[in-house]
Amino acid sequence: MPTLTEWAYPLAESLLAEPLPRRWNHCLGVAERARTIALVLDQDADLLEAAAVLHDIGYAPDLAKTGFHPLDGARYLRDVAGADERVINLVAHHSCAWLEAEARGMREELEGEFPRESAHLNDALCYCDMNTTPDGTPTNPIDRINEIAGRYGPESLIGQFIRRAEPEILACTSRVLERVGAAKRQPM
To answer: What's the CA gap between 123 and 9, in Å, rounded?
Structure first.
């Protein structure tokens, strides 16, 4: 039986690589960030990496139904791909998605269909996403937030959402870095 990542990579590639190559590179970079923090995830490292490579599949033209990619991706994973429930929930709630759902009038819908995973996993996926450029290279969350706001425009729904989410994104990053630092200080 394949691991979650062995299953997730080909699925994400089949949905993103051809129609959205830049988005595919971003997802590969987010998955790479997930591998860098595996030491604080124990048995959930494979789960996080699978969610990381799949987190933006809702942008795929064939999947985009509502225009809200976390919900579209999670519904596809649940209804079509038969994915692991925890992967689905992480995709549904990645990177403060509940705040964007609220701005879209979809928060009840999102939270009614998909429960949130544990805070440390949501933090970890947010950290990975917000420390990766659209091209998949490492960055920091402040530059990433500024890039998103600039790309969509400060008055757009996404521009307003990302500024509203900024304190939580920075807090997620801080909590993950604290866990990584503590793990590295532990004696072997």
So the answer is: 21
**pLDDT 10s digits, 60-119:** 999 999 999 999 999 999 999 999 999 999 999 999 999 999 999 999 999 999 999 999
Which tokens is 135 given? Answer: 């091209």
Buried b vs exposed e over 25-37: b needs ≥16 C-beta within 10 Å? bbbbbbbbbbeeb
Alpha-carbon distances of 71 from 75, 103, 178, 184, rounded to whole Å: 6, 14, 30, 35
**Helices within the chain (DSSP H only):** 4-16, 21-36, 45-54, 69-79, 85-92, 97-103, 107-113, 119-130, 141-152, 157-185
C-alpha–C-alpha distance, residues 94 and 96, integer Å: 6
